[in-house]
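Escalation from tier 1.

The customer reports that the assembly of two entities below gives different structure tokens on two consecutive runs. Tier 1 could not reproduce it. I'm attaching the input and our single run for tier 2 to review.
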Amino acid sequence: MNYNIISYGIYLLITIYVVVVVGGLIHKNGRPFLINVFHQNISLADSVNNLLLIGYYLFNIGYCIISLKIWKEIGSLQEVTETLSYKIGMIVFILGLMHLFNVLMLLITEKKYRKKDIQLINNNKNQ
Amino acid sequence: MNYTIGNYTSLAYSIYIPVIIGLTIWVAHKLLSNAKVFYTEIFHGQIEQASSLNRLLQVGFYLIALGYGFLRLQIVPEAQINTTGSQTYRYIGNVQQVIEALSIKVGGFVVVLGIMLFLNLLLILTQRSNANKAKAAELALQHKMAETIKE
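Tier 1 run:
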């Protein structure tokens, strides 16, 4: 068993753990926003939320596994630390960027819906 | 890569990793506890949604800060060319070089944390002004409706 195999194991354990935990947090905390966007239609919001979660798992874990292909050879424990921290840091950083982008999109959509609602009320009043 | 005697790189790593994790947790905690007031105001007392958005932004903060910190952990050894023309790598050999290498790493990380804190603050403040505008529009609408009903 060489250093490469050990670091593959640690890498997969840590990245999959991070992806699953973050997915759970997003799933739980994004629910009120989706319910708001879908006008209190709770069953629709929940099913969209579940589908989004599954898509997120597949996409991210797939990317983690694909990126195993391009590792260089590892010769010592110090190199294990360096390579692992670079690879895991990269995955976590990309996750963070995607997550913040999604939150921004959520806020923008919510604002748009709120504006539409106010317009609808205005139109009804004018008729 | 073979170890030279007195390779202090591992020492530098074992200082760097706890420092970045501790700093990230501290800043994220401060952010969460102080942004709560803003969010309850922005969402007009809808506490569930406010704490959800707060939590989401905190997760993003953790991911970006820790990811960036681990991404730039590696201390690259300096390449030197000997008088014989062969190339050797100069590893960190004493405590002074550990301090110098760590100063760049930790300092850069702290600056990025600060920038992210300010970006978060900016987001909160723009959200707040948007929410205030929406509330004013709603109030004006209600006022108008009340007047039309009177007529």
